[in-house]
Amino acid sequence: MKAVLLILRDSFQDVWADLWTMLACNLFWLVANVLIVPGPPATLALVYWGNRIAHGEVVDLRDFWSAFGRYWGPAWRWGGINLCIITFLIVDIALTGQIAQGLWGPYLQGLYIALLASWLTVQLFALPFLFEQKTTSVHQALHNGVVMIGKNLGFSIVLTLFLLLTLIVSTITFMLSMMLGAVFIASASNRAVLNRLENHKLSSSRV
């Protein structure tokens, strides 16, 4: 719990320390995802940017733009995998609610919802691993994300719940999650991965 609170505190400080740049990056990310095609590269650029900040480096918009162009290939490999899996699960949730009747219907639908939530949680930790590995292998990053959650289940659940709560509260109050939510999550996820790597005495070169 203490580690999660420290991660959230540091992430808030990251956003506040360079608020206007954070707003610009988050706005570009929103527009890119509305346009769909540049969405995955913008997401990886945001995570890369958060990774450099988590490592204590000084970054600016040029680093974000550079990452946006450099990681287009890995971004769409990640995006393609997510598009297939998330679409499959959402369709199963919808069809199960319409087709499956009786006792097992709600349980099957709940299972697919749980699988979708689990998959999205994996992405929270998998993307930072892309920039902690020796290569930007999407499959390896996904594997590392799953392993990290498995070894830190309580930590992962608490962090995810706190992030959701923070986004919900900020949306209800000042719509801050719309303006800064993505950069906040990028910072928190990177800090979480670095925290767990340090906790397990792992270095980037050994991932």
Compute the number of structural domains: 1
Beta content comes to under 5%
Terminal-residue CA separation:
25 Å
Tally of alpha and pi helices: 9
Rg over CA atoms: 17 Å
Topology order in helix (H) and strand (E) letters: HHHHHHHHH
- What's the count of strands? 0
Work out the oligomeric state of the chains in this entry.
single chain
Low-confidence stretches: none
Mean pLDDT, nearest integer? 90
Helix content: over 70%
User: Which structural class matches the secondary elements?
Assistant: mainly alpha
Q: Describe the biggest sheet?
A: none
Shape: globular
Q: How is the topology of this model organized?
A:
Elements: H1 2-17, H2 19-34, H3 39-54, H4 61-70, H5 72-99, H6 104-129, H7 138-151, H8 153-174, H9 176-199
Helix pairs in contact: 1-8, 1-9, 2-3, 2-9, 3-4, 3-5, 3-9, 5-6, 6-7, 6-9, 7-8, 8-9
Describe the model.
By secondary structure, the chain is an all-alpha fold. It has one domain (2-206). 83% of the residues lie in helices and 0% in strands. It has helices at residues 2-17, 19-34, 39-54, 61-70, 72-99, 104-129, 138-151, 153-174, 176-199. Helix 1 crosses helix 8, helix 7 packs across helix 8 (153-174) and helix 8 (153-174) runs antiparallel to helix 9. It is globular and about 55 Å long.
